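Hi,

Apologies if this is the wrong queue. I'm a grad student, and the batch job for C-type lectin domain family 12 member B from Cebus imitator produced an output file that my downstream script rejects. I'm not sure whether the problem is my script or the file. Here is the sequence I used:
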Amino acid sequence: MSEEVTYATLTFQDSAGARNNRDGNNLRKRAHPAPSPMWRHTALGLLTLCLMLLIGLVTLGIMFLQISNEINSGSEILSQLQKTVDQQQDNLSQQLGNSNNLSTKEEFLKSHISSLLNRLEQMAVKLCQELIVHTSDHRCNPCPKMWQWYQNSCYYFTTNEEKTWTNSRKDCIDKNSTLVKIDSLEEKDFLMSQPLLRFSFFWLGLSWNSSGRSWFWEDGSVPSPSLFSTKELDQINGSKRCAYFQKGNIHISRCSAEIFWICEKTAVPVKIEDLD
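Support response: The file is valid. Your script probably expects a header line. Output copied below for reference.
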């Protein structure tokens, strides 16, 4: 009887201890619940995002350093190029300065040579004139035979026949010349110095242009008022009027009148080899 009670008591105590153990485990489970799968995914996503941001920051840092290095390198290259450009500009300025100096020297030499050539030409002309006056044994002939030489022109005085202004002009053209044009006081004095012109009349290359209502030389230029007085130019009636030269003055006549004439053409330049 006593053994059965003891058994029952032990059994009860063991059953009560088991319940206590189960109750303790349940309380611990309720106090520390197990993590849910959704929270794990969220934590993993945040961790991945942090890693990506970290990688991005590192990448941006590296790119920034590279760009900084490239900028610094580009600045150095640009500075070097600027120095090179400045040096080239300085060199160009020096070259231009040297070129200007050379141009100035060249112009001076050209001017000096031109002056020497002019003096040589003047001396050759004077020597040729002396040869013509004092000797017949020479080769200096700026003008054809029977023509008179003065400065840069040759003059042919026709005194063996008389012609109208138009026919006189034609004769000069046949001689490869024109009726004389007086365009300087020196030339006027030269013509006045000729003995025949003191007493005879000679056609000039000056005529009245009815369409332009003015006086013109054959080359189209107008007579200089300082050389001739033209007050009497309107005293001759008719559409065709021509001028002649006598005793250093200009006179007007009808072009149909027949008088002497003077032809003029350019003289041949004096050659140094013809002065030997």
